[in-house]
Design a protein that fits this description.
The protein is built from 4 helices and 9 strands, in the order αβααββββββββα. It is α+β, with helices and mostly antiparallel strands and 230 residues long.
Length: 230
């Protein structure tokens, strides 16, 4: 992060005054999940289809055998966790906007996620990607982000599967000046009989630099060498 950009996110950010519209500048800054969790805690019932039950059972079988590369390449290869799992990472992330694109800059493995706010039609991706394709708009005080084209090599959290047809809708808003809320809804009729989701909360952090040693591959390889006694 350049000195100039770091300076921009050091601006004092307050909750918008009554009657004043929320803008992305109110969200800018550094945030961290308030309650770290490997799973997306559902606030609505999770009802799997037959295909969904089959996929979840397979993930559980592979996990019991420690065959992570067969179902969770985030663990085995430090690949991007995808959406919405990126929003569950325990480390900090920074929100900033340039040219109509909102960027989530994660400390975890220096991952990036972008939300296109320009309101113009976008072509479907030729192949699904880890973080998919996200477009955003404002509805009242909430930034509504809709993500599609997410690779089915990712997971919703540390175990729940999804198909490549999944649509993730997030309503991101400020609860107060130092609390950010993300209401996540999963819509995937192939694996889930009805939409479900949960709420994740973040707290504002000091805008201190992200350290380059926070890289997943380095930590994974160090841990692997230690396990081998090298």
């Amino acid at each position: 992060m350049t000195t100039g950009m770091a300076g921009m996110v050091l601006l004092t950010i307050c909750t918008p005054a009554h009657g004043q519209a929320t803008t992305i500048s109110d969200f800018e800054g550094v945030w961290k999940i308030a309650k770290p969790s490997n799973s997306l805690e559902a606030s609505t019932p999770v009802v799997l289809t037959a295909e969904g039950r089959k996929a979840l059972a397979e993930n559980k079988r592979l996990r019991s055998q420690h065959k992570y590369d067969d179902y969770d390449i985030t663990i085995s290869r430090c690949s991007s966790p995808g959406v919405p799992r990126l929003m569950l990472t325990p480390m900090r992330f920074r929100i900033w906007q340039r040219l109509g694109v909102v960027t989530f800059d994660f400390e975890w493995n220096r991952a990036l996620r972008q939300i296109d706010m320009r309101g113009r039609p976008t072509e479907p991706l030729l192949a699904p990607q880890m973080t998919g394709r996200t477009s955003g708009r404002w509805e009242g005080d909430a930034l509504v982000a809709e993500t599609v084209d997410v690779s089915d090599r990712t997971l919703i959290d540390d175990i729940m599967p999804h198909s490549s047809d999944m649509r993730v809708t997030e309503r991101i808003r400020l609860v107060d000046a130092d609390t950010l809320e993300d209401r996540i809804t999963i819509d995937d009729p192939i694996y889930y009989a009805k939409p479900w989701g949960g709420v994740v909360t973040y707290t504002r952090q000091p805008a201190t630099p992200f350290f380059p040693e926070h890289v997943c591959l380095d930590r994974r390889d160090t841990a692997a060498r230690a396990m081998r006694g090298k």
